[in-house]
């Protein structure tokens, strides 16, 4: 049986998804990918990841919505969510705030642009 | 041979203008200053293709159409650069991903777009995506052509590694 932990990476930037996935694979994780909130839910139901790295600003369904739904669902609420945030002061075109992130009940927040090494440390902490 | 290559998605970045710098003989210092100005003024570039040839640094970038005037203003202190800027009619970026480092995907895309007589103003690859710059007026057709060239969503991104 494959005991590698499964991480779901969700972002509408395919290059960022690829970069994070390659890093995770090199650290011996299995990786699933999704490019918007709807696809994220498909992957969550099909594969039940151990941890989700979730972007906020995405088409169809944003990361806050996905996180809120997940954390209010008894079946999935124990899945760790790391939110990738680029809010207010960093992105002038967004209305998202840090408060949105807090009410979404994510387990961790990583500001964009992300530092891959810091992200890996968080992933390792939550998948030990 | 009717080989189909699986792709997980296609992304459209619209409402853009292409900015071309020709014959500018830009120095690296000038270009760096210009890019720093864009960053400080939060002018986002959806794409940047740059290179250094015998004529100096040259580049093509795409910015949101509403940022066009701000970009012009930012080049005011660099008259040498300002004189060499060309702004295009509206363009869109069409990206297919992930290419998985398969060069055939690029060949298929170019052949399909060429067969459909869709003008290409540039293309590039990144870690995951192949991106094509097309006229906004041709977006619908270009999108159909690329969708027809790949097996889109055929291999939804399940566990990959």
Give the structure's gist in a few sentences:
The complex is a heterodimer of chains A (128) and B (161). Helices cover 40% and strands 20% of the residues of chain A. Chain A has 128 residues and is of the alpha/beta class.
Strand content of chain A: 15-25%
Measure the end-to-end span of chain A.
Answer: 18 Å
Count of discrete domains of chain A: 1
Oligomer: heterodimer
What series of H and E elements makes up the topology of chain B? EEHEEHHEHEEHE
Number of strands of chain A: 5
Class derived from helix and strand content of chain B:
alpha+beta
CATH topology descriptor of chain A: Rossmann fold
Query: What Rg of chain B is obtained from the alpha carbons, in whole angstroms?
Result: 17 Å
What does this protein structure show overall?
The complex is a heterodimer of chains A (128) and B (161). Chain A is of the alpha/beta class and 128 residues long. Chain A has one domain (6-127): Rossmann fold (3-Layer(aba) Sandwich), CATH 3.40.50.2300. Chain A is 40% helix and 20% strand. In chain A, strands 2-1-3-4-5 form a 5-stranded parallel beta sheet, sandwiched between helices. In chain A, helix 3 (63-71) links the parallel strand 3 (51-55) and strand 4 (80-85). Chain A is globular and about 30 Å long. The two termini of chain A are 18 Å apart. Mean pLDDT of chain A is 88; it is low at 88-92. Chain B is of the alpha+beta class and 161 residues long. Chain B folds into 2 domains: 7-14 and 91-152, ACT domain (Alpha-Beta Plaits), CATH 3.30.70.260; 16-88, Alpha-Beta Plaits. Chain B has 5 helices and 8 strands, in the order E-E-H-E-E-H-H-E-H-E-E-H-E. In chain B, the strands form 2 sheets. A 6-stranded antiparallel beta sheet of chain B has the order 3-4-2-5-7-6. In chain B, strands 1-8 form a two-stranded parallel ribbon. In chain B, a hairpin with a 2-residue loop joins strand 3 (45-53) and strand 4. In chain B, helix 4 crosses helix 5. The radius of gyration of chain B is 17 Å and the shape is elongated. The relative contact order of chain B is 0.24. Mean pLDDT of chain B is 86; it is low at 155-161. The A-B interface holds A 6, 12, 14-15, 17-19, 21, 24-25, 29-35, 39, 42-43, 46-47, 92 and B 8-9, 11, 42, 95, 97-98, 126-129, 156-161.
